[in-house]
Amino acid sequence: MAIKVYKPTTPARRRTSVLLSHDLDKVRPVKKLTRKRKQNAGRGNSGKITVRHRGGGAKRKIRAVDFKRDKFDIPAKVVTIEYDPGRNARIALLNYADGEKRYIIMPIGLKKGMTVVSSKKNFQLQVGNSFPLELIPPGTVVCSVEIEPSKGAKLARSAGGNAILQVIEGKYAQLKMPSGEFRLVPKTCLATIGQISNQDYRNIRWGKAGRTRHRGIRPTVRGKAMNPVDHPHGGGEGSNPIGLKKGPMNVYGKKALGVKTRRTGKLSDKLIIRRRKKRK
Fold first, then answer.
1. Domain extent for 38
2. pTM score, two decimals?
3. What contacts 238, CB < 8 A, 6 or more positions away?
């Protein structure tokens, strides 16, 4: 995969780049494994906006990705490598020996024609295979990791994501996450060998607002540009500062910088050995 940079024929093209798709198969997705993407525009079940700057975007058909990998000891052949509009990683279509087809998130190095397997007893070090963490040797790069056994992968699922298995101690396996965080995961949780594909996604330059709107992301407006009724920073004339506030505040009037957002007393706090690195 490579990134194409356009010639600056227009002001928008000057800053635009796209990800080439030579690695994808030009086929229609399996109809039984697709569903419509419901557009909630950032609203929760009560109809109130819980996530700002969401809405619009192109119509999408989301692929049903198999995060559980619960067809054990049944070999599956990689049939196609496809694009999923619901995620930034590539997906691979597996054709199992019993005739069932499933999509999985594709790791780097997985190619058409290869055979992968998910097992709880027979370990084989190959990209795309899925095993419990207790069977995987320490130092192995893994992805699509479960937090709870048989609940499906939750960690290291985005483009270029991976975790490094450090050691197995007692009931838990120690993982180094992409953020630098060290955390414990039950050793019976499944993980896939390899690193998630499409690692160049983070280097795309979207170039203009229109491409971002197609992704379902609406504009973000500065608080200083609003009225006092709309934001704590609002009001004033010209380029006035944020007033007598001690520091930047969000739209709800709470401190915006240097405040921990993680809920205190979470059950998973005891499983985190070392927090992620702070951004500079």
1. 3-202
2. 0.84
3. none
